[in-house]
Design a protein that fits this description.
Pathway: Metabolic intermediate biosynthesis; chorismate biosynthesis; chorismate from D-erythrose 4-phosphate and phosphoenolpyruvate: step 4/7; Aromatic compound metabolism; 3,4-dihydroxybenzoate biosynthesis; 3-dehydroquinate from D-quinate (NAD(+) route)
CATH architecture of the largest domain: 3-Layer(aba) Sandwich
Organism: Phyllobacterium zundukense
Largest sheet: 6 strands, mixed
Helix content: 25-40%
GO cellular component, one term: cytosol
CATH topology of the largest domain: Rossmann fold
Keywords: Amino-acid biosynthesis, Aromatic amino acid biosynthesis, Oxidoreductase
Structural class: alpha/beta
GO biological process, one term: amino acid biosynthetic process
Distance between the termini: 19 Å
CATH class of the largest domain: Alpha Beta
CATH superfamily of the largest domain: NAD(P)-binding Rossmann-like Domain
Strand content: 15-25%
Order of helices and strands: EHEHHEEHEEHEHEHEHEEHEHH
Radius of gyration: 18 Å
């Protein structure tokens, strides 16, 4: 953690297609409100015309330029792990990092995504049924959200991912971590239609629905009125999935809350100062719809 007596912080966001992300202005505004200088840069792999293989070089450059820390988003949340010196218990358990502290020559990876989703869910979908939930996507953000769902009390979590082996790995890790809930409380879907028919919740954790990847992540006929539907994409806030689910009559949760609350915890880790989450929420709304990002 960085100590609060510091008065200047240089931060960055590493990911692909992040130029209009709300994360930098959220952090900068809160730094202003807290009375210190905080400069937050976007490090866009698409603009640099590189991929995650450039992470070692980018980390060295960040250290040499005096960066305090970095947020990490798609497609780097898992690829960055071999470049780090240490992982927090959450990041180690989840196998995904979205926040990196750079201090005293060491790189320490954290995961604030799971807490961000949990806080958003508790506020946005109070009383939602948790007996059976289907989650689409088991990548870096998906692993964090799955962990959050189990901490929220989901009794059966069904994972569906194009990479079946990845989903199986996440399921096995969760079953070990939450064994008190009973054997096999997390499993990989073998028949999505059957699993959706009995589910009372759907969580979407793939890039589908983002500006670059429009459309629905599953056949529309699998949605039904008894579902609540939660999204982690927040540009646009009203994805096609949420729009369709709302039309059917489902309770919905957009990805904005997760984006804000993961930033709240990252801000604390970077600066040592607990931010005003209500103020950050208000600023997120003020930034309007002209921003894009998955949960950074």
């Amino acid at each position: 953690m960085i100590h609060p007596e510091r008065s200047r912080f240089l931060l960055g966001l590493v990911g692909a297609g992040i130029q209009a992300s709300r994360t930098p202005p959220m952090h900068e505004r809160e730094g202003d409100e807290q009375g210190f200088r905080l400069l937050y840069q976007s490090i866009d792999l698409e603009q640099l015309e590189v991929g995650p293989e450039a992470l070692p070089e980018l980390l060295i450059a960040a250290e040499r330029m005096g960066f305090t820390g970095l947020n990490v988003t798609h497609p780097c949340k898992q690829a960055i792990i071999p470049c780090l010196d240490e992982l927090s218990p959450d990041a180690a358990a989840l196998g995904a990092v979205n926040t990196v502290g750079l201090s005293n020559g060491r790189r320490i990876g954290h995961n604030t995504d799971w807490w961000g989703f949990s806080e958003s869910f508790k506020r946005g979908l109070p009383g939602a049924g948790l007996s059976s939930v289907v989650q689409l996507g088991a990548g870096g953000a998906g692993a964090a959200v799955a962990h959050a769902l189990m901490t929220l009390g989901v009794r059966e979590l069904v994972l569906s991912d194009r990479d079946k082996h990845r989903a199986e790995g996440v399921a096995a890790a969760l079953n070990e971590r939450f064994e008190r809930f009973g054997a096999g409380c997390v499993r990989v879907s073998q028949d999505l239609a059957t699993d959706m028919a009995k589910a009372n919740g759907l969580v979407h954790c793939t890039p589908t629905g983002m500006e670059k990847y429009p459309g629905l992540p599953l056949p529309v006929e699998l949605l039904h009125q008894k579902l609540w539907v939660a999204e982690i994409v927040y540009f646009p806030l009203e994805t096609e999935l949420l729009r369709t689910a709302r039309r059917i009559g489902c309770r919905t949760l957009d990805g904005g809350g997760m984006a804000v609350f993961q930033a709240v915890e990252a801000f604390r880790l970077f600066t040592g100062v607990i931010p005003d989450h209500e103020r950050m929420l208000r600023h997120f709304v003020q930034l309007g719809s002209g921003a894009k990002d998955a949960a950074a």
